[in-house]
Amino acid sequence: MRNLVRTYLSAFNELGIETWLMHSALLGWWWSKQLRPQDLDVSMHISEADIFYLASYYNVSTFSFKNPGIPRATRYLLELSPYAKDREQADQLHPADARWIDTKTGLFLNVYAVRYNLSRPVGEGRLRRLSCKDGSEMVDTDLFPLRVTIFEGVPAKVPFCYRELLAMEYGAEALEGSDDTL
């Protein structure tokens, strides 16, 4: 899973796709700047504009990376859902907009596009509501501007209000005892 995350972050950085950690990956970053040992379901977020870009130019593309400690390069497949461009969740069993897949092991991480929620009213102070197919909801000022950091030894980004988002998802007690440094 660590190689999966490292190669995903590196590839998306090379493609100019702005991606950021969410859910358990963000919690792992909070505690150790790494995945937690129990993380088997990793989710990353990207913008709606970037999912359209990937759908247009990179669907079913393979990427090759030389990972430390592995003699030969590993190939990864970027596969977009047929519903990636749809705002609504059409596939209840597989809501991810894309997957980054290790072609040798079959391990994958899910990629979700974050979209402005047109059905929800603009919030207090003209805050714009965002949502994605993994059920996440937030306001745009919770995410942007993204903060640059390191995760699993490679450059990564996290939401601007990472502490508040983690507390909403996992409870404040899940954050107690960390030194909270980017």
TrEMBL record:
Cellular location(s): Membrane
This protein's GO CC annotations: membrane
Domain of life of the organism encoding this protein: Eukaryota
Membrane topology, record value: Single-pass membrane protein
The entry's keywords: Membrane, Transmembrane, Transmembrane helix
InterPro entries: FKTN/MNN4/W02B3.4-1
UniProt KW Transmembrane keyword: yes
Main location: membrane
Protein name: Uncharacterized protein
Species: Parathielavia hyrcaniae
The organism's taxonomic lineage, starting at the top: Eukaryota, Fungi, Dikarya, Ascomycota, Pezizomycotina
